[in-house]
């Protein structure tokens, strides 16, 4: 989970403050010192930490505690507001697109940071917003780069313009004409990765910039490289008028220092983050929501958006109806599982829930989900539809068929029956057919790996 270490450290700071009846200068100093240490351990640039903690100290020492907030809540409020400002503030993270003309978006960055994948992810994201994007393969140097773009483009149902025999400058010119003639309103240029020390390739980027006059120049950085990402951003920004950043592997960076540092040192907003391996795993970077996640308050709005975009409403209504009639069976449970998996991994879903994402004790991963699925798929249709007929002999067969222990099957059946009782007792469902209830209880014992 991104920022996991920072979230845990800050949660501990706020927990200590929660026991205070009033806030003294000494309390503020101790809290700020611990916040400073947490940020430095998260690989945040020292200058960023210094300015950030000075602002918190100034505000916290001069604040009046209101009747509606505790001292801890006041500090959280201040830290939250300063985090949002540090992460770029509101309104700076959207792409600047002209509704009347072709918009060219140029991607650049070092070799191996994932520009090609991000180009397709961005194109699909924009397509889902009602645009008509076209991808242009401007990387003629890396073996199979064009083929990779074409394969991923086909998977995302996005058109790809390629001319492998031409120079990138000529490809850019032809791609612009092609996009204009075929009704595309966005052209995304996938340029070759390059080291900033390669003068010829850097000049090539400047040529492409001059030819295409892009609406956006997005620098693709790997979040896992930490402070190296900051140095890369500064160097590319000197040669190009970078307008924003795409941060890849955002889901794998437990420290998060690159995100906080790169905005401060370059003055450029992070516009998108890569959150997984699927072509749909990209999100617009929203400082207020990221700040909320850092402080352990979750990101419910993003989860709702992903849910609405992914859930099959017809299947959700079908499941809701079965629950309301107390006819929910393993077939429905498997269908519900598959619906939830469309949103993302179970771990990524939990990370967005308040007070859950930062808990190491949750220990939910997709291996557990696979284990449960294997057992359900080893049942016959009759067993899935009528769980009460699953006798001891059937349980031995299900265990053998799924590669699990009989005790695992026993645990699955027991928990399923408990869940059905809970559904019957407390009633049914939410908007999309899923109650807030207790799918999570299936994973607490870690027996389904």
The biggest beta sheet reads: 8 strands, mixed
Overall form = flat
Per DSSP, the total helix count is 19
| Low-pLDDT residue spans | 355-362, 427-449
Which range does the strand content fall in?
5-15%
Question: What is shown here, in short?
Answer:
Helix content is 53%, strand content 9%.
Structural commentary:
The protein is an alpha/beta fold and 449 residues long. The chain has 3 domains: 4-86, SRP54, nucleotide-binding domain (Four Helix Bundle (Hemerythrin (Met), subunit A)), CATH 1.20.120; 103-294, Rossmann fold (3-Layer(aba) Sandwich), CATH 3.40.50; 305-443, Signal recognition particle, SRP54 subunit, M-domain (434 Repressor (Amino-terminal Domain)). It has helices at residues 4-17, 25-41, 46-61, 71-86, 115-128, 145-156, 168-181, 199-212, 227-239, 257-266, 287-294, 300-310, 313-324, 330-343, 346-350, 366-377, 381-385, 392-402, 406-426, and strands spanning 103-108, 133-138, 159-161, 186-191, 216-222, 244-248, 270-274, 282-284. An 8-stranded mixed sheet has the order 3-2-4-1-5-6-7-8, with helices on both faces. Strand 7 (270-274) and strand 8 (282-284) form a beta hairpin. Helix 1 (4-17) runs antiparallel to helix 2. It is flat, with a radius of gyration of 25 Å. Residues 355-362 and 427-449 have low confidence and may be disordered.
């Amino acid at each position: 989970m991104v920022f996991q270490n920072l979230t845990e450290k800050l949660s501990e700071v706020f927990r200590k403050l929660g026991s205070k009846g009033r806030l003294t200068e000494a309390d503020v100093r101790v809290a700020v010192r611990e916040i400073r240490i947490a940020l430095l351990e998260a690989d945040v640039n020292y200058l960023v930490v210094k300015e950030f903690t000075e602002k918190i100290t100034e505000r916290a020492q001069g604040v009046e505690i209101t009747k509606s907030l505790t001292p801890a809540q006041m500090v959280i409020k201040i830290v939250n507001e300063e985090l949002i400002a540090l992460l770029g503030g509101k309104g700076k993270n959207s792409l600047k697109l002209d509704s009347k003309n072709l918009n060219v978006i140029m991607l650049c960055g070092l070799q191996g940071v994932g520009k090609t994948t991000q180009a397709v992810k961005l194109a699909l994201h924009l397509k889902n917003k009602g645009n008509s994007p076209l991808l242009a393969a401007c990387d003629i140097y890396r073996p199979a780069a064009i083929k990779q773009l074409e394969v991923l483009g086909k998977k995302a149902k996005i058109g790809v313009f390629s001319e492998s025999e031409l120079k990138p400058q000529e490809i850019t010119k032809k791609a612009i004409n092609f996009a204009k003639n075929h009704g595309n309103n966005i052209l995304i240029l996938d340029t070759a990765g390059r080291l900033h020390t390669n003068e010829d390739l850097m000049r090539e980027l400047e040529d492409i910039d001059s030819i295409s006059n892009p609406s956006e120049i997005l620098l693709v950085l790997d979040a896992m490289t930490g402070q190296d990402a900051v140095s890369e951003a500064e160097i590319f920004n000197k040669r190009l008028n970078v307008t924003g950043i795409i941060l890849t592997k955002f889901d794998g960076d437990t420290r998060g220092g690159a995100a906080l540092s790169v905005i401060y040192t370059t003055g450029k907003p992070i516009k998108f983050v890569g959150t997984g391996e699927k072509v749909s795993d990209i999100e617009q970077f929203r400082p207020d929501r990221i700040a909320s996640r850092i402080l352990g308050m979750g990101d419910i709005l993003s989860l709702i958006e992903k849910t609405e975009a992914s859930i099959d409403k017809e299947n959700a209504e079908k499941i809701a109806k079965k629950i309301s009639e107390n006819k929910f069976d393993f077939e429905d449970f498997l269908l519900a599982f598959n619906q939830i998996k469309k949103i993302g991994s179970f771990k990524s879903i939990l990370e967005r829930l308040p007070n859950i994402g930062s808990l190491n004790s949750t220990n939910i991963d997709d291996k557990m989900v696979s284990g449960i699925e294997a057992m359900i798929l080893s049942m016959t249709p009759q067993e899935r539809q009528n769980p009460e007929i699953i006798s001891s002999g059937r349980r031995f067969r299900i265990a053998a068929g799924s590669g699990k222990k009989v005790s695992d099957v026993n645990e699955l059946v027991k928990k399923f029956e408990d869940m059905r009782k809970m559904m019957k007792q407390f009633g049914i469902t939410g908007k999309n057919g899923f109650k807030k209830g207790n799918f999570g209880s299936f994973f607490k014992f870690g027996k389904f790996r």
